[in-house]
Design goal:
single chain, 363 residues, mainly alpha, 69% helix, 0% strand, disordered N terminus
Amino acid sequence: MTISDDVRKDSVREVAGAPEPKWGIDSPATTVFDFNYTDGRDQLLRLYDKGTRRQWIGSDRLDWSLEVDLDNPVGLPDDINPLFGTVWWDKMDDKRKGEVRRHFEAWRFSQFMHGEQGALICTAKIVQTVPDIDSKFYASTQVIDEARHVEVYSRYLHEKVQMVYPLNPSLRALLDNVISDSRWDMTYLGMQVLIEGLALAAFGVIRNMAEEPLAKSLNAYVMQDEARHVMFGRLALRDYYPQLSQAERDEREEFCVEACYHMRDRFLGEEVWERLELPPEVAPYVENSETLRVFRSYLFMRIVPILKDIGLWGDRIQKAFADMGVMAFADTDIDAEMASDEAAAEEYDQARMAHVKAVADLA
């Protein structure tokens, strides 16, 4: 996929503050009612119960009074910036480096925001199309989760970073495929496993490495929700995929292979380098840099073990992951990772409450 001149112009307009036009996708889907109200699966019902109890309010749980340094909004170390150490970076003064940091984080968080709107739409579609009432119950809690995620990322971008980029063309193409497919399981597979799995890894980089407290806590709280969402997809698809024919599983594996290569090779932030009018050779350098190679591999830490867990683990998908250099993630303890995501959010809550108490004691 190439970025057209129209897309480049849209990028400039949105960075300058004009909103992107609305985007419509035709989605042939069958609405399914399930009248068997008493035969839900225990694991999904427990997840639904947790989902209802773990709702939170963005304006209350996050400290929006915190100031953000526009020259380094997230507070990530420069040595993980793909331009760090290059002749282009070394020639920049402090002001220009700050501009690069701000644009790149605006682009990154904008894709988080757009992806969360995609998740909002996909989860609403799951409520409509999934055949089991217990799945409808849980998906309904995820709808409000995703709305909240769009809200907090939008507020962070508009109020704190004060810059928004449009939807990346490659993420747009993947969302188009997922939303337009009429089969309910493909919505789960594309969103709950692939897009959410990728997002969890990207969120984790910020939660674990950033120094700016608002970005850290925002991503930690979103990850707490996403851990439940990925578990939801695992439970539903792990029950369903053994019922499919080998040809049907092969088709889904091929979709995963194409999507994973697409996410690895296309989600590179070219719009940032173009907007900043950096030399054309920057884009291929970034694509092949060691920093980005390591980061792109890390993005698959959740996806690989989940696909193995739900039974999409044929020769085609194993060969692709071996080619990408991410097969080592196949043995990742995904339950331990999800438990860690939940624990991290609880630690932020404890620190926040301790700070609130300390301020109150001084009053």
